[in-house]
Amino acid sequence: MSLANASGAPSYSDSPSGTRTFIPEVWSGKLIEKFYDATVLAAISNTDYEGEIKKFGDKVKIRTVPTAAIRDYTRNTDISYDMPDGDVIDLEIDKGKYYAAQIDDVSAYQQDVKVMDKWATDASEQMKIAIDTDVLAATYTQVDSHNKGATAGRIASNLNMGTSAAPRSVSSTTILDAIVDAGQVLDEQNIPEQGRFLIVPAWALSRIKKSDLKDASLTGDGQSILRNGRVGMIDRFTLYLSNLLPSATVNLGTSGAPNNVKAFHLLAGHKNGLTFASQMTEMEKLRLEKRFADAVRGLQVYGYKVIDPTCLVDLYAYAA
């Protein structure tokens, strides 16, 4: 039996009846599918521009809707006309991450193709973790000034979303108040109610389940969220769990307060605020020059941009 088929791709024999062939193009499709099944980015961002990506370094032009000027009308006077040219925002596909593996010719006889399938599954998961972490770590820093801090609220200016020195304390009795306050921040920015999201860490989700919502009569469900495990939507926010939200250790430095608490940036908002585009542009097989082995490698390029900071809220909080 030869080590490779006619096309040069390694063959794997796991039964007397025949061989299986590794096909890079099939892996490419699998990895893309698994990436989007696992990530939260597709759910919390606008991904309309992905089809325009061809390679690393591409630049996508995004046209914004111009703002109409409303003026007072005076009889028998000339009226003014706007020139409705919206600004153009550049979405640069300037980030990329890759994975690579080599398949030794001898190992090809000893490994079933399912082993490589497991490697592909892990590669897609690690890719998702790396890209999610990168985007979430940068997004909260670009939130509108009215949508974060101790005096949040474009109109009220009295909503505590937490500061770097004094993050908001959240318990099972206060977490619903924090979520409602985040909703008010968006309300005062006139953000649409449909399509809002809230990303929470595991500790916040557990406190939601221990809150007043554990009473099934308050949720309208036949069972409480402690019984059915669902949280779903609270105050127009669709909730998503993520263990990748950025965090920092904070010394509160006040009398009676705990020291060295771990505070997290809970990101709330509307998907119109963030645009994200990703594409697997390279998936190839090659023969290694100095080894009796084939290699497979893939390149995922992506870019992201906060195009409307008023659509996002940074709730900086710690578990009380």
Automatic annotation (TrEMBL):
Highest taxon of the lineage: Bacteria
Pfam families the record matches: Phage_capsid_4 (PF25209)
Descriptive protein name: P22 coat protein-protein 5 domain protein
